[in-house]
Amino acid sequence: MKSRFHLRILWPFVLILAVSLAAFALLFPLVQDSVFQRAIETGKQANYIPIFTLVFLILAIGLMIGLLINIYYTNQHLNVLEDLTGAAQELGEGRFREIKIPGDVGRLPEMQELAEALQKTATQTEEQFNALNKQQAMLSAVLDHMTDGVLIADDSGKVQLLNAAAERLFKIENEQANGHSVVEVMRHYTLVELWEKTKNGNPETITMELGSAHKYLQVVGINLEKELPGRTMLLFQDLTQTHQLEIVRRDFISNISHELRTPIAGLKAISETLLDGALDDPPAARKFLVHMDNEVDNLTQMVNELLELSRIEAGRSNFEFQRSEPCDLINKAYNRMSLQAEKAGVLLTQECPSDLPKVNADPARIAQVFINLIHNAIKFTPAGGHILLSAWQDGDKVVFLVQDDGVGVAKKDLKRIFERFYKADRARAGGGTGLGLSICKHIVDAHGGHIWVESIENAGSQFFFTIPTTAR
Amino acid sequence: MSRFTLDQEIRLVQDEILLLGSLVEQAILNSVDALQRRDTTAAQHVCENDRKINAKHHAIENHILITFATQSPLAGDLRFLAAMLEVNTELERIGDYAKGIAKVAIHLADTDFPIPMHEIQQMADLATSMLHRSLGAFVAEDTIAAHSIPEEDNQVDELYERIYRKIVEAMIKNPDTIDSGNQVAWVIHNLERTADRVTNICERVVFIVSGESVEFDVSDDEPIDE
Predict the structure, then answer these.
(1) In this structure, are residues B116 and B163 in contact, taking their beta carbons and an 8 Å threshold?
(2) Could you report the per-residue pLDDT of A20-61, keeping only the tens digit for each?
(3) How many angstroms separate the CA atoms of A155 and A225, rounded?
(4) Which residue of A176, A212, A247 to mutate against B (max B Cβ within 10 Å)?
(5) Record: contact B18-A412, CB cut-off 8 A
């Protein structure tokens, strides 16, 4: 530190010196007279003691006053220093406050400057701190609300950061994860291997299935050497839904190919037979043509259902809602399907109380729902069985029921039968596109209603759907 | 200084145990998956992977014994290391169960025996989930979880009963399937035993924390003997 001398601090000394000299000059004549007068009168040598006493007294008083002034100012400065030290300490701890500068510090401008400098530092630090805080809050909001999991670990394999999505994925709280090993947090050897590879500079992207929850993940390893030396980041993307969609698509392609192949193979066989000479036998040729006609009907129905479903799903299908009598809806369905039921040897009956309120429905669409449900019921009810159509009021809606005493639906299929292209294994034998129930569900949904099934295997099924009585 | 190293050693062994646990967990899930898809290659892979599990088991055993010899652990550390030695063995056994299921998968790949896959999958998911959480409770020394996990063993036993009845029905209907049915019975037996081993791991958690050897009130016998 450069040592300088501040002349300014000499003013108390100069002041005391001046006052002392003045006091001496003022008092000396009084003493001088008496001392020298007496020496002349007595003829003895002059006694100088009073003069010495005077000088001594003035010096003593001057020193005392100087000391007092010194004590006063030192104390003042100590107070200010204490205050500044306190403020500096609080600043260090991250607390910011207004620094009060005592008015008389001004006598020493350096103290004033120090206080001001400190005040400025505090304000600036506070601003930077707030800006950082804001940025941090923004980043952690992004991290916590993103659907991908993020994990950052240091080079010893300790987890430094785990966002909310990753916490949910690994079913672990942040407090249990921070500072714990990646093994303890992720609990999967494939992930630990990926972390090791990424740490060693060979980042990879893998897809895997995680544990008994059967979650499909895409995990991206990112080496953060450049940004944060020694750190490694893993990103977890949950592909479970995409994976399920993929399965549905695969099911669809395999179902639709299977269903299309059967009628096409039939047509091919018949046309070959006709070409091979059956054409010359008119009665047989006619029989074959009827077969062909049936197969073409099947194909047409399948293609129509597919188109209808894609229209409903795309929301492009127009519904014409009108006030409709529930019993009319049931009766129309009954009339259209009774012949088919009779052919299959199944008894179709209807029960409908006449006092039901009108519902807000598109009759043609509801007829389609009934036909699909009755068609299924006939398919899965052995000859001699019974199918019942009924309806009743439940609050502001009417519940419709199609009940059969057929083979029922296996418990494991109950959840999925309304899915597109889903077919319980047995259904395959009966043909169909696997679209009927899915179409029913879409139509009922569009009416603001709800469709569900209750079934006991080998005892029959009950398909319920509700239609609101009030306009949507 | 030596205290620091012992802590470090324990953490290392603990991580190794968790890795072994995850290998074993995946082995069970993979073997059941191979059974479902009747995929002999996948089943073969599980069998080969068992060697990796056994090697890891031996490595961990060595690591623990060396730690005993060089660090002379006391009290809680001693109990923890001793318990890990035992958990290590339990995990290796569960690995053998997975191999057993994989062998059945190979055996059944060419048959059309109606395997009640839905329930078996449920059973495997439950058993592996219990295993996963029990190891979590083990490293966290969480006695509350250690007490609650073995209670889920009842669900495993229920599933066992249900599947067993289905298998027997299928065998009665078609006596030609007795061999296949018997094989499936081994699969569910192995899954049931897996859940029992998990109960043992939970007992070790209580031992680490309190030093008491408890026996959870879960029947170790196969439920079919009742």
Answers:
(1) yes
(2) 888 888 888 877 777 777 778 877 777 777 778 888 888 898
(3) 10
(4) A212
(5) no
Q: CA of B124 to nearest chain A CA: how many angstroms apart? A: 8
Residue B17: closest CA among B137, B112, B113? B137
Are the C-beta atoms of residues B97 and B194 closer than 8 Å to each other?
A: yes
- What's the pLDDT score for residue A79? 80
Q: Where do the domains of chain A lie, and which CATH numbers do they carry?
A: 7-125 (no CATH), 146-238 (3.30.450.20), 243-313 (1.10.287.130), 322-468 (3.30.565.10)
B23 closest CB neighbour out of A189, A209, A412: A189
Domains of chain B and CATH, by start: 2-225 (1.20.58.220)
Prediction ipTM score: 0.88
A349 has which bridge partners? A388
**CA–CA dist A290, A296 (Å, integer):** 10
Task: Find the distance separating the first CA and the last CA of chain B, reported in whole Å.
Answer: 56
Chain-chain contact of A412 with B140 (C-beta, under 8 angstroms): no
- Looking at the complex, does the CB of residue B145 fall below 8 Å from at least one CB of chain A? no
- In angstroms, rounded to a whole number, what is the distance separating the alpha carbons of residues A244 and A215? 10
Q: Give kind and range of the element (H or E) at residue A161.
A: strand A159-162
SS3 B90: helix
- B interface test, pick of A156, A181, A183, A416 with most B CB neighbours within 10 Å: A183
A208 touches chain B (CB under 8 A): no
Which of A176, A187, A212 lies closest to B18 in CB terms? A187
| A192–B14 C-beta distance less than 8 A | no
- Report whether A387 contacts A403 (CB < 8 A): yes
- The Cα A361–Cα A469 span in angstroms is 9
In 3-state terms, what secondary structure has residue A214?
coil
Shortest distance between the Cα of B154 and any Cα of chain A, in A, equals: 18
Instruction: Write the burial class of residue A32 (CB in 10 Å: 0-12 exposed, 13-18 middle, 19+ buried).
Output: middle
List of chain B residues whose C-beta atoms are within 8 Å of the C-beta of residue A217: none
Mean pLDDT of A356-368: 89
Which residue from B11, B22, B126 is facing A187, i.e. has the nearest CB? B22
Residues in a beta bridge with A210: A215
CA atoms within 13 A on the CB side of A44: 6
Q: What is the pLDDT of residue B1?
A: 43
Q: Which of A111-120, B74-83, B104-113 has the lowest mean pLDDT?
A: A111-120
Q: How many CB pairs under 8 A join A and B?
A: 43
**How many angstroms separate the CA atoms of A401 and B101, rounded?**
45
CA B197 to each of CA B23, B86, B115: distance values in angstroms, whole numbers, following the listed order = 16, 11, 25
Region B161-187: mean pLDDT is: 91
Instruction: Give the three-state DSSP class for B166.
Output: helix
Name the residue among B11, B15, B29 with its Cβ closest to that of A212: B29
Residue of A nearest to B123 (CA): A212
What's the rounded Cα separation, in Å, for the pair A420 and A248?
8
- DSSP annotation of A99 reads P
Nearest to A140 by CA among A174, A171, A91: A174
Q: A212 to chain B: which residues are within 8 Å by CB?
A: 25, 29, 124-126, 128-129, 132
Tell me, yes or no, if A187 comes closer than 8 A to chain B by beta carbon. yes
